[in-house]
Structure formats: structure tokens, C-alpha cells
Amino acid sequence: MDNYMLPCLNKKLFGIDCMGCGLQRALAFLAQGEFAQAFKMYPAIYPLVLLLAFWGINLFLKFRFDTYIKYGLLIITAMTMITSYFIKMHYLFN
Prior knowledge:
The protein has 94 residues and is an all-alpha fold. The protein is built from five helices and no strands. Helix 2 runs antiparallel to helix 3 and helix 4 packs antiparallel against helix 5. It is globular. The N and C termini lie far apart (32 Å).
């Protein structure tokens, strides 16, 4: 499966990870059932999967506060991505 993963253009050009680095490997770990390793690889994987699942379900079922739930999940996902990126960069450059 590693042979079919796309390389990160940001990492190839500039030598540093982008905010999405690790997402493909985390999805591969989820598919293999290695949930802890998926979280270690990309901590935003679980809020992202939850957000995408809610959006998919919301196409067919409408909820009372679905807009607020979507925005809340979107904010949680974005904050998790940003926080984990800065933590990774802090440890990389220190």
C-alpha cells in the first residue's frame, strides 16, 4: 500500500511537513485496524473522520442543529490540525 501513496509536494520542495502530512498513512493504519498508530501519525484523523461521516449522514437525514454541529466539528478538526502541526514543528526544530 505504501507504493501507491502520493508524495507531499511541500516536503519535496521545501523539506518541511505540511498540515496534511501523515493523513494518507493514518488512513492506511485505520484501514488495518491500528487505531493508536493512526492517531500518532495524524492526530486530526478522528475529528476529520467524524466530520466527514456527519456530512455524509446529513445529506440524507436532517438534524435540528446540523449547521452548528458541522461548524463545531470543523473548528475542532482545524484546531486539532493546527495544534498538532505546531507541536510537530516545535519538536522538529528543537
